DNA sequence: AACCCGGGGCG
DNA sequence: CGCCCAGGGTT
């Protein structure tokens, strides 16, 4: 695939005209979003992290709450990590929050509350890749750095009629070159946001509104009628089935949670096992029974809760047999492991989790109450 | 290059 | 139910 070159017939004046057109459209149609109120690099940074793989509508309330609790980078740096993670519950991709917190500590220690106008500093921060670097630098400091994300990728490849896959290999290079080539020398941040805003509001993945697009008359995909083919559809991801088991029997000690790989017969890993090392090759059921027996000194013969997880979608097939076994022991109760922490079933009622998890939580809570375990 | 991470919205 | 979303890190 060729490197980025302007289409035949384009001059620097054409490019300048298109830039003006897009910026004017942005001025008229930009959404009023909370992180667009000013050019505070901290607010912009937080918004960009939240917006990773997450829709604008989903982010807005989280952004408001987060900024109310952690209004400055110093406030975030001083916060407890569990407090930060609680503000993230329901957003997903929790590593983003940990990286953000860690990076805030680094920045606050080195620069206080005055975030540096220095790409080299930002590029070293955990969780800051090429996109967030360009986004923060251009929006907060008007530095001339490009951004490429799902929207601008679609806009640019349609605009210039790129026929390869701009997400991989040579296509990735091409789209970053294109994003850099179209940048104006002023209002860089606005221009980057205009590309994304156009992708979000007009140049949508399916059925783009080319009739109202401010740059349609310079768009190769529009001219050739190839909007549906550019960019090419993403390859379907293989569905991997994983079986997980979560059990804890608390008597001062916690036992837990292993995960089986696709072969569904062996332990893939153990996440936290203060008690109950799994023997290699031991089945889930056998190990949990053995550990439960050791802790309760009762003969626990029934199996554990089984949790089936498919890619991206979580489905549960639950048996409450282990809970019943615990009830027989009389003095124990169960906990549930969710989003990286141990959660008491009682607290799961208000825990922000997806609906399948919610059903599991409700079931556990109900069962626990009936069994007077709490 | 392939894979992992999460949850919601939408057709 | 399957695809998509203001990506980055790890292997």
From TrEMBL:
Matching InterPro entries: A/G_AdeGlyc_MutY (IPR005760), DNA_glycosylase (IPR011257), Endonuclease3_FeS-loop_motif (IPR003651), HhH-GPD_domain (IPR003265), HhH_base_excis_C (IPR023170), MIG/MutY (IPR044298), MutY_C (IPR029119), NUDIX_hydrolase-like_dom_sf (IPR015797)
SMART domains, A to Z: ENDO3c (SM00478), FES (SM00525)
Cofactor(s) this protein requires: [4Fe-4S] cluster
Nudix hydrolase domain location: 240-366
Protein name stated in the entry: Adenine DNA glycosylase
Keywords: 4Fe-4S, DNA damage, DNA repair, Glycosidase, Hydrolase, Iron, Iron-sulfur, Metal-binding
E.C. code: 3.2.2.31
UniProt catalytic activity: Hydrolyzes free adenine bases from 7,8-dihydro-8-oxoguanine:adenine mismatched double-stranded DNA, leaving an apurinic site
Similarity annotation: Belongs to the Nth/MutY family.
Domain of life: Bacteria
Signal sequence extent: none
Organism listed in the record: Fimbriiglobus ruber
CDD domains in the cross-refs: ENDO3c
Annotated function: Adenine glycosylase active on G-A mispairs. MutY also corrects error-prone DNA synthesis past GO lesions which are due to the oxidatively damaged form of guanine: 7,8-dihydro-8-oxoguanine (8-oxo-dGTP).
Main enzyme class: hydrolase
Membrane-spanning segments: none
Single GO biological process annotation from the record: mismatch repair
Cited PANTHER family: ADENINE DNA GLYCOSYLASE (PTHR42944)
Gene Ontology molecular-function annotations: 4 iron, 4 sulfur cluster binding; 8-oxo-7,8-dihydroguanine DNA N-glycosylase activity; adenine/guanine mispair binding; metal ion binding; oxidized purine DNA binding; purine-specific mismatch base pair DNA N-glycosylase activity
Coiled-coil regions, chain positions: none
């Amino acid at each position: 695939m060729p490197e980025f070159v302007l289409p035949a017939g384009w001059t620097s004046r054409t490019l300048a005209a298109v830039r003006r057109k897009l910026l004017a459209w942005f001025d008229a149609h930009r959404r009023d979003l909370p992180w667009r109120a000013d050019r505070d690099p901290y607010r912009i940074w937080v918004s960009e992290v939240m917006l990773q793989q997450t829709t604008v509508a989903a982010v807005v309330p989280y952004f408001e709450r987060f900024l109310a609790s952690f209004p400055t980078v110093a406030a975030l740096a001083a916060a407890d990590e569990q407090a930060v993670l609680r503000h993230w519950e329901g957003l997903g991709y929790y590593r983003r929050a940990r990286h953000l917190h860690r990076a805030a500590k680094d920045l606050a220690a080195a620069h206080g509350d005055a975030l540096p106008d220095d790409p080299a500093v930002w590029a070293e921060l955990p969780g800051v890749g090429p996109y967030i670097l360009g986004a923060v630098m251009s929006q907060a400091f008007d530095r001339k750095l490009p951004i490429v994300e799902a929207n601008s990728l679609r806009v640019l490849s349609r605009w210039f009629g790129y026929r390869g896959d701009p997400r991989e290999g040579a296509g990735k290079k091409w789209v970053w070159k294109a994003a850099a080539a179209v940048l104006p020398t002023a209002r860089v941040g606005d221009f980057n946001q205009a590309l994304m805003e156009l992708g979000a509001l007009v140049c949508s993945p399916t059925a783009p509104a080319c009739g109202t697009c401010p740059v349609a008359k310079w768009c190769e995909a529009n001219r050739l009628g190839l909007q549906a083919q550019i960019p090419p559809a993403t390859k379907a991801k293989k569905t991997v089935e994983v079986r997980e088991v979560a059990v804890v029997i608390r008597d001062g000690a916690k036992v837990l949670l292993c995960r089986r790989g696709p072969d569904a017969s062996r332990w893939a890993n153990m996440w936290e096992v203060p008690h109950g090392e799994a023997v290699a090759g031991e089945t889930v059921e056998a190990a949990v029974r053995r550990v439960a027996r050791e802790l309760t000194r009762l003969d626990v013969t029934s199996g554990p809760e089984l949790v089936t997880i498919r890619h991206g979608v979580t489905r549960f097939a639950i048996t409450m047999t282990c809970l019943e076994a615990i009830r027989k022991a009389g003095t124990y109760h169960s906990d549930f492991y969710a989003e990286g922490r141990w959660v008491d079933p009682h607290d799961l009622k208000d825990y922000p989790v997806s609906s399948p998890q919610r059903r599991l939580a409700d079931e556990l809570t109900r069962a626990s109450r009936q069994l007077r375990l709490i």
